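fyi for ur records
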Amino acid sequence: MTNETARIQPADLKVRKGQTPIVCLTAYDTPMARRTDAHCDLLLVGDSLAMVVYGLETTRGVTLEIMIAHGQAVMRGSQKACVVVDLPHGSYESSAEQALASAKRVMDETRCQAVKLEGGEDMADAVAAIVEAGIPVFGHIGLLPQKAEGRGGFKIQGKDDEGARQVMRDAKAIEAAGAFAIVIEGTIEPVARAVTEEISIPTIGIGASPACDGQILVTPDMAGLFSDFTPRFVKQYADAGAVIDDAIEAYAKDVRERRFPELKHCFGVESKTEEAAE
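which gave:
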């Protein structure tokens, strides 16, 4: 059984403001959780799985039940990292009461360490209600994928003076509401840097600034597993998709040419080595 006391907790990350950068990646299932856990401080069960796993056009198509199922899978595959589960679109925006109910359900059913929700000033009351109930909250400001459709698409934030001021107001509102850290996504570098310098909790950048207190990427983007679209801010550290393609091609060829399976892959058949030993 996993020793939950050994896990990194939100409070551990909060005090790392301005110290060693916080390493974050997404994880959606048990195998990927096992691979990322040893290297990451935080694993995010992000609603990006709507696009990466389910092939949807936006992050809006996943339900609370789906997020919980993936959260459970990641918890089974990890032991060290702080696991955070996204609250999906439609599960928290209506009221602070709805947000709290959804957060409680995620925590109860996954046993994760925190929840994440998108929004700034407009979501401060919801964040405060969840935090007051003893549930850690990971904030998310700047470009908000769940709200992109209503904002004219995936547009970089903070490009004009009012936009920059709004990002700062959002950061301060979520900080004041009690979040332990904040994702800054798709925001121009000087604004993300200014927010990082201004607020007292860690900022985690994605398409933001190297000055942020940590960084996060979608793991399939980083590893070259998701090729439908690669954002400018992604650095691809491997081409795992090509490796998998080659493996599948080789397997298919072996099956068609009857080179797989060999007798050594079968049961009830003694190999030549076993016969010689007898």
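The mean pLDDT is 93. thats all i got for now
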